[in-house]
Amino acid sequence: MNWLDICALEDINPLGARIVAGPAGAIAVFRTSDDQVFALDDRCPHKGGPLSQGIVYGRLVACPLHNWQISLESGDAVAPDNGCAHRHDAKVENGRVLLSLNLQTAHP
Ligand code: FES
């Protein structure tokens, strides 16, 4: 995998997100309460709401527009809603946040 160093973990607020410009649009990189990081395209699978402005809790983010809940791990919307946000790989190493772009369609 090709990992990109995007920022320090402290640059992302706990339960917040940072936006990174990707080749296919903005990517939201989220930080959970236990300092894990997850990356999804900053586009809700419902109507394109900015997931980076949503509220993170557990391994989910709630879209700020209509409150769909999206899994940070898979990008899937929690039932009864149905859809998937494109995800990328992200991890923390030595206090740095690393991102690996997933340029394939995650869910064909
Ligand atoms: S755009 Fe995200 S829930 Fe509607």
From TrEMBL:
CDD domains: Rieske_NirD_small_Bacillus
Pfam families cross-referenced by the UniProt entry: Rieske (PF00355)
PROSITE patterns: RIESKE (PS51296)
UniProt KW Lipoprotein keyword: no
Keywords: 2Fe-2S, Iron, Iron-sulfur, Metal-binding, Nitrate assimilation, Oxidoreductase
InterPro entries reported for this sequence: Rieske-like_NirD (IPR012748), Rieske_2Fe-2S (IPR017941), Rieske_2Fe-2S_sf (IPR036922)
Residue ranges of every copy of the Rieske domain listed in the record: 4-99
NCBIfam families: nirD_assim_sml
Protein name per UniProt: Nitrite reductase small subunit NirD
Record organism: Stutzerimonas azotifigens
